[in-house]
From TrEMBL:
It is a multi-pass membrane protein. InterPro entries: Glcn_transporter. Pfam families: GntP_permease. It comes from Pedobacter ginsengiterrae. It comes from the Bacteria. It is found in: Cell membrane. This is Gluconate:H+ symporter. Belongs to the GntP permease family. The chain crosses the membrane at residues 28-46, 58-76, 96-129, 136-154, 174-193, 225-245, 251-277, 298-316, 336-365, 377-400, 420-437. The keyword Transmembrane applies. Coiled coil: none annotated. Keywords: Cell membrane, Membrane, Transmembrane, Transmembrane helix, Transport.
Amino acid sequence: MTILIVFLCIAFLIVLISVFKINAFLSFLAVSFVAGLALGLPPAKIPSSIEKGMGDVLGSLAIIITAGAMLGKLVAESGAAQKIAQVSMNIFGEKYIQWAMVLTGFLIGIPLYYGIGFVLMVPLIFSVVYRYKLPALYIGLPMLAALSVTHGFLPPHPSPAALVIQFKADMGLTLLYGLAVSVPAIIIGGPIFSRYLKAIPASPLASFTPKEMSESELPGGFKSFFTALLPVILLAAASFLPMVLASNSPILPYILFAGNPSVVMLIVLIAATWLLGLSQGKKMTEIMGIYAEALKDIALILLIIAGSGALKQVLTESGVSNQIADYLQNIKAEPLFLAWMIAAIIRFCVGSATVAGLTTAGIIVPLMEHTHTNPNLMVLAVGAGSLMFSHVNDAGFWMFKEYFGLTLKDTFKSWAMMESIVGLVGLGGVLFLNIFIS
């Protein structure tokens, strides 16, 4: 009966978000209260459980997510994103322009949140389409596949970063494994798949053609690439160096300190403030204004994450987690696949990759602990599942349709199919890595 209550509560959450269009944060709060009462928690204890769950999740993520949003906004506003794209085009040329778009989307997707990246990169896509007179989907889908995969798989994006905390994974190792899984997913879902979409008519509006910054206003290529990749460099170094240093090395504590994800993001933000801000002639007040705008973009994401923490805490304190684990253990399925499937189903019902990932975490944590599944791979399995089945209840679906001027049918054939391809390839990559890592 307890497990039935939990699944009814999750179904209620899905209905509130997808059918009644209730804000995801408010839906999480409402379902948390209902779940607490239905599962027999003392009514007076439910508010404190919710507050604790919200505080525990945000306490670990607030710095990472806010600093990451500020970095992404500065990368875009400074012209670094345009410079990265420009250099990539010059390297690859018109013949291999798809790969330039993939590389651009991947590099920009690491520091940039998906919604911001989509809006900022679509004008760049259209400028290439108009300049080279190439099919819009053939050019655009590879870049957007890269943006989507980095959003679903790689910290410091909100869902992967939150899953790292909840699964007690290692941020650096998750990032390294995520890079290994991301590359084939992007290649198959982007350049390869988009070759079959050349005949689909798309009519991007001329008004989306970008008003580019002049060459003199752009930061240098090294500055742009270095700043965008600095979080990856530092997190990777923090995971690798402890493996090669002696346990009593005097510099090890400093490496562990500097490798903490929150510290990494603050270091990167300080570096970016100078490299892409002050050294480019921007005033400190202007840079702070950019950072303030970035916080507006991710305020709702923070609240959704907090809401998911509230529901998870209620489930934990009710004791239902162990019962769910016992039930799921009887299902003859690889835990990584089971987590992927749960995330995919919730994504199909809710439409949000972030909500799908975070909701799955609360269900799968006890099973992961009982089966000793690799937590880094579990983050990636849930991330891959959360990208599946994008359709009419997903904001990204409609953004793609409207920006590219597609019919509903063609949006399913292109966007929805691409998202499912990267989710399936991601699952395959995770299961493949599990053979060697476990």
